[in-house]
Write a structure and sequence with these properties.
Pfam families: SpoVR, SpoVR_C. This is SpoVR family protein. The protein is of the alpha+beta class. The chain contains 31 helices and 12 strands. Strand 8 and strand 9 form a beta hairpin. The radius of gyration is 29 Å and the shape is globular.
Length: 677
């Protein structure tokens, strides 16, 4: 046996206990993860898995080598180390790098358990599989790899043609309708009742801007339609499906478009299915990474899953991850989850306090002694500090106390009475794993967010407007005689319960739209920046929460990429494809757009047109703006770019078509008014 495999087995054996205990702790905390299989891999294997998107086998293509090289150089030049990768599957498979320290391995394991919970419970992941079945992604992707490899090796099919065809599809892999459940191309576009969807969206509390951009009325009504055609008043967002159903290939010998070969249709089906499988991960990056970082931090730090000799290493590595520059999904996601937890817990406490005799939303700030509230909210000492010598305090809480796992407590007391050694059967390591003696309710009280030092002023900062909203429909507003009596009824699990509800239904766009508040932006110091034509550089432009939300939503709507749909499959009655860029105030990169149009031609076989809107600047106005250090105001003009397989043409777009693709009042420009000439 190779030495490295022996080393991997040794490391795996040493991780059996952390894996077992992390899974048990995650479930105690209310998580419901898929079962996870853990694998130890070396540096090169880890880079290969990352290149393959977390799986051991993918279809043959040059993109994997490019991604492997990028990851290898990232490690080599110190731009970030890969600690793990986990895939969305049941069971999930997590790969740990053998060079990790024990502290890092434990952090990875707790992180992975939270990811597996998110995979298993978020509805957007469930849209890929039918009838709420579990995914079998590894088998699916391996089958796809075999299919495409078979075509690559077929002597009657040119390998270069297969690779070029894959290249063309990959240019369009994000032009799917990721908000619909996956279905085979040519099958009905959706059957979910529009009214049910409207009710679901209402419950998610999303804004009108997001509703218009992502879940508009035409989209909702389209859920009930089975037609596969595209029309100017009902564009088809799943471009790949439309090309699969109606696309052709240009035949140089006949000089005309011909039917696709069976292998081409098969490859298109395979890659479209993969695009839908990976869509949920792209749509929930902030939520998912923030969720995993939150529970990892609680388990490793607050529940001391990291030993005393491991905590400094863990804290150092965690701070680097959360402190990485740029738009950091770990940091943004974790900050938002903590804010949701704090906000929910604050409402829970305020709701109880407003029911105390003599307390109203008008006199709340003057009447409530916040120091007294902080003291009363502290967890019971018997729950807060669990050690072998304090077990009697837990027992004194009584046999019916819902916060105590009485079966585990009995075992621990018996082990202490028998003076068992750690290696003897029946021993309970209370000092190392105190959480084993608590239930979900006990852990919720032990970790109530408003008790944490960094959140102590959060209740005091509650706005009068929020207090008024809470009190508006409160009929039993004098339910308690004292503050102490009111706080005895606080549900310490309110924040965690709300977090799990949100984890089930939201994606990044709806998550940010619903919960990115003015208070959150102010407390976390978020701001926007814009490129200025006048100075040719970027400048900070706004710290207003509406502007910050606009910019963040831009990063995540349609995976942060332009939204393109099919508007006509027989444009101008000549069999030409008419695509439309659904303009939101941000121009396309026209050079890149032309490259994508060329690839689309390979899948359509006939001329391809793309409608878009460009910003044009008058040179005289631009020069004046430079002198005055202000920003010129552009003119927005509709254009239609046409490619016939040989050359491009650019035409002015009819006003009617310009209106169909132009934004209404949704615009992601946050330049201050005084920048405009």
């Amino acid at each position: 046996m190779r030495d490295d495999r022996i080393e991997a087995r040794r490391i795996a054996a040493g991780l059996e206990e952390p894996v077992r205990e992390a899974g048990a702790l995650a479930r105690k905390l209310g998580l419901e993860p898929y079962p996870v299989n853990y694998w130890i891999v070396d540096h090169d294997e880890m880079n290969e898995l990352i290149a393959y998107g977390g799986f051991q086998r993918r279809y043959p293509h040059w993109r994997w080598g490019m991604q492997y090289d990028r990851q290898q150089k990232q490690d080599q030049f110190g731009m970030g180390k890969a600690f793990e990768i986990v895939n969305n599957d049941n069971p999930s498979h997590a790969f740990l790098q053998e060079s990790n320290s024990l502290a890092d391995q434990k952090a990875v394991i707790t992180h992975v358990e939270a990811h597996a919970d998110f995979f298993a419970n978020n509805e957007w992941f469930g849209m890929f599989v039918e009838d709420a079945a579990s995914p079998d992604a590894a088998a699916m992707l391996e089958g796809h790899a075999e299919t495409i490899a078979g075509y690559m090796e077929d002597p009657e099919i040119d390998r270069g043609e297969v690779e070029a065809f894959i290249d063309a599809i990959l240019c369009l892999e994000d032009t799917i309708d990721q908000h619909r459940a996956f279905s085979r191309a040519g099958s009905p576009r959706g059957s979910e009742d529009a009214e049910e969807l409207r009710e679901k969206l209402e419950g998610m509390n999303i804004s009108e801007d997001v509703r218009r951009q992502v879940f508009d009325e035409a989209w909702l009504e389209g859920q009930e339609e089975a037609a596969s055609e595209a029309a100017l008043d009902d564009p088809r967002k799943d471009v790949l499906a439309f090309l699969r159903e109606h696309g052709m290939q240009y035949d140089d010998e006949t000089g005309r478009a011909e039917e696709m070969e069976p292998w081409q249709k098969d490859v298109l089906d395979v890659l479209r299915e993969e695009a839908y499988y990976f869509a949920a991960q792209k749509m929930t990056k902030v939520m998912n990474e923030g969720w995993a970082a939150y529970w990892e931090s609680l388990m490793m730090g607050e529940e001391q899953f990291a030993g005393t000799d491991e905590f400094i290493t863990y804290a150092d590595h965690q701070s680097r991850v959360l402190g990485s520059p740029g738009l950091n999904p770990y940091s943004l996601g974790m900050d938002l989850w903590e804010y949701i937890e704090n906000s929910t817990n604050r409402r829970e406490v305020a709701d109880k306090l407003l029911r105390v005799e003599g307390v109203t939303w008008r006199n709340f700030q003057e009447t409530i002694d916040f120091d007294e509230v902080a003291d009363l909210l502290r967890p019971d000492p018997a729950i807060d500090a669990i050690r072998t010598e304090t077990l009697d305090g837990l027992a004194e809480l009584g046999p019916d106390d819902p916060r105590v796992d009485h079966e585990a407590l009995d075992r621990a007391l018996s082990a202490r009475e028998a003076d068992l050694d750690p290696d003897e059967e029946g021993y309970v390591d209370v000092d190392r794993y105190p959480w084993k003696l608590l239930t979900y309710e006990g852990l919720a009280e032990r970790h109530f967010s408003l008790n944490k030092p960094q959140n102590r002023g959060f209740l005091r900062r509650i706005r009068r407007s929020e207090l008024e909203r809470l009190a508006r429909y409160m009929f039993d507003d004098e339910q308690y005689a004292t503050v102490e009596e009111a706080l005895a009824d606080v549900d310490y699990g309110a924040g965690w319960d709300r977090m799990r509800e949100i984890r089930e239904s939201h994606n990044d766009v709806t998550f940010l739209d619903a919960f990115l508040s003015e208070e959150f932006v102010r407390e976390n110091h978020y701001f926007t920046y814009e490129y200025t034509r006048a100075s040719g550089d970027f400048r900070a432009t706004s710290s207003e929460y509406e502007d910050v939300k606009k910019k963040l939503l831009l990063q995540f709507t349609n995976f942060g990429k332009p939204t393109v749909a099919v508007y006509d499959g027989n444009f101008d009655n000549r069999g030409e494809l008419l695509l439309g860029h659904q303009y939101n105030g941000v121009m396309l990169d026209l050079k890149q757009a032309r490259g994508v149009i060329e690839r689309t031609y390979d899948l359509w076989g006939r001329p391809v047109n793309l409608m878009t809107i460009v910003k044009e600047y008058d040179e005289h106005d631009l020069e004046i703006a430079r002198r005055r250090n202000r920003e010129p105001e552009p003119t927005e003009v509709g254009k239609r770019i046409r490619y016939d397989g040989e050359e491009f043409e650019v035409h002015d777009l009819d006003e009617d078509l310009s209106e169909r693709i132009a934004a209404t009042d949704v615009d992601y420009d946050t330049k201050p008014e005084d920048w405009l000439a």
